[in-house]
Amino acid sequence: MRSSPMPRLWRRFRRLPGGRRLLLLEAAFWLTAARLAILLVPFPRIARYLGELHPPAREPDRFLREAAAARGVSWAIERSAPFLPFRVVCLPRALAGWQMLHRRRIVSRVHFGAARDAAGAKLRAHAWLDADGVEVTGYPEAHNCAEIGYLAR
């Protein structure tokens, strides 16, 4: 009989430094808020909150002040998402990451794109988040997508 992984995960969580624990809890909160927003709020309203729609950028803007913070947000989103009681796909991850970076006054962009599935029959939509070259959410899948545009303030 196998024991539940929860006690082991709880021990690992408790061993993390306090800042990392808070970052994980914040990520879980914003992932949940993003999921609810997607379910309850019309997307055009969410998009207006994120900023204006821009065509794909040829050269990334140089606006990130702290790459370490963006990498920390990425880490927290990826670590907390599997433990939520619902499936967290690319768009809520990108929205939660955007909000976490926005609260830290770090400018980021939510990108939208599409790619064909492995058989080449169906088109798959995808969203990802970056902050001046730091791949926050939605990677490595984003590398296979044709970008349609991005939202930024």
- Given the C-alpha coordinates, what overall shape results? globular
Number of strands: 5
User: What is the CA-CA span between the terminal residues?
Assistant: 53 Å
Please tell me the overall pLDDT.
Answer: 87
Largest sheet: 5 strands, antiparallel
Radius of gyration from CA coordinates: 16 Å
| Global structural class | alpha+beta
The low-pLDDT segments are 60-64
Fraction of helical residues: 40-55%
Q: Strand-residue fraction?
A: 15-25%
Number of helices: 5
Brief digest:
By secondary structure, this protein is of the alpha+beta class. 45% of the residues lie in helices and 20% in strands. Residues 60-64 have low confidence and may be disordered.
